[in-house]
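Dear Dr. V.,

Thank you for agreeing to look over these. As mentioned in my earlier message, I'm a first-year student in the group and I'm still getting used to reading structure tokens, so any feedback on how I've presented them would be very welcome. I ran two proteins. I've put each sequence directly above its structure. The first is here:
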Amino acid sequence: MDAIRVTVRRGQTVEARHRVHVRSTDGNAAGEDVHCFLRSSLKPIQAVPLDESYDDVSDEEIAVACASHQAEPDQLAAVRRLLERAGAGIDDLECGTQAGRPEGPLGHNCSGKHAGMLAVSRAHGFPMHSYREQTHPVQRWIAKLVGPADVAIDGCGVPTFAMPLTQISSLFASIPPRIAEAMRVRPDLVGGTGADDTDLMLALPGWIAKRGAEGLFCAVSPEGVGWTFKVEDGASRALRPAIGRVLGVDAFRAVPLRNGLGEVVGSIE
């Protein structure tokens, strides 16, 4: 099957087209088996050391460690709880800052992941800094979970990994049950209001999902089938229509195109 074509219309005129490639662990496929970085879709795997290091870690702490959050109050509160567990402060976060976000590094969309890495370091007596280096025990632990892959540095400073979509789907399907359950219980912490992954988990109870940069989206069905969607040109606006078509989510099939006043001026479908 060819890649899924998502069309952007302003009025009745076609303004842009995007190609979306798909792979699943049960053999469904569209387009090519693209080789790409997991980026933030890796976060549920990066949270495995946190889950394995403590017996009492909460759903909220795990979910926010998996999050690309929007600095909503509940999300920031969950990151603070992880920092307390780590015996660390906001200044210990090595994720940097993002414009328009509150409280410096705490407001960064990856702060939960970084706080989780600090908590793992404390649990095992690893050096707290620099926990993001490839040679640090936490990063070596994650690399072992991922397996053979190309490695580069993500936007928040930690290693990320590249592999074909088929392999990404299998890796995402391997997320441990405890982490998957936390994501199901607190989908609002994983993304936030209006986020693609949060909205999919709300629309399809029992599923888990995590979006990544450059138009990547991973999901696992209640039956354990892993799915990966990749927009070829990196435009994440094309994800919802493709997901809606493949997974049968009617609310995702057509996305209104709005102007700065909030008026609908076209569609993405």
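The second protein is here, in the same arrangement:
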Amino acid sequence: MASTYNSLGYQKMATGENAGTWGTKTNTTLDEIKETFGYVSIAMTADRTLTIPDGSTGTYDGRAFIIELTGTLGGTRVLDIAAQAGDPAANIEKPFIVFDNTTHSGDTLTFKVTGQTGFALTEGTTYLCYHNGTDIINTGLGIGDVTLTGTQTLTNKTLTSPKIGTSILDTNGLQLALLTATGSAVNEFTIANAAAGAGPILSATGDESNVDINLNPKGSGVLKSATAAIKIAGTETLFIPAPAMYGTETNGADAQQVETTATRPDLKVLDFDAGTAEYAQFAIAMPKSWNLGTVTYQVFWSPSNTNTGNAIFGLQGLACTEGDTADAVFGTAIEVTDAGIGTVEDVQMTSVSSAMTIAGSPADDDYCFFQLYRDAADGSDTFTGDARVMGIKLFYTTDAANDA
């Protein structure tokens, strides 16, 4: 009885056959078994058919377990596994690890049994696949989907707590978001989607009880929603014109309307005398968004003569909560000095003052009194004419987005 061969080309010797050569033939079979766990490199510059020879070694590309495909395809390429003498390929059942190390350049590469469909390989991917007796089946356990140097697209993959480097790029490889790591970070963003009728949420979360969200435009950039600028808590201004002020009962500044030229702007002013300290007051309910801290101010005025001496202005404040008496002392005054501009009826502005503390322990919704004066009694006040105040700009700091 003659020998037969199985689907991997191993010799099945008949009883009583091959007397005196069993050792040689058995060693050949053992080498073939070794080849079944071996590696082969195949250039796919043309179509290739894998073969499994019967009872021999050395040309075992269909028997190899690990197959590396190399070269530039240069066209549509097929890697077949075909029948060999004595046993049809359709009866082969074995696994393969296939590494597609080729360059596709837009061409396709398919691994299949001759006459079947198989599956298409992706450049740079390693596949665990198998011959099921009919065709080559991809297990889907590709271990080259993510490589150190390859460019891949992940689909339907779940990443649990992935670590991302310094940037996230768009599909063109351009910067979409830059990431900066902070040592010992304890606060972060949480993003939540939403059902119909609700908007998604970007939240500040972390170990601390109160966590801000900081959005910082670059340079002169503005934080916007669509095309509208978003209001940001920070420095705000209130302008109080002279008509909104009133001279005090004692040493009050004199309210005047100064005509420049007929039908041109008239100046509604408070005249502060050059020889006597005079005062004017105004009162406002400060916005609830005010942080209850210090304020600064700037005086808008016009000289009544051409003198260029210094005029010294001062401002002081008092906050009254509901039930507080208004008969209280103003806070410490903060003064600013400005020289006459040398031309009558010119508009001029002082520099912005240093910080002024408002007396009375300010609280939300307080009614605040302010007193403006010219310190004409100070020897450093040398402007010889009336200082005609047109108004002041009050600067305050907010710590809320609105006054609700």
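From my reading of the second output: Helices lie at 22-36. The longest helix spans residues 22-36. Does that match how you would interpret it?

Kind regards,
E.
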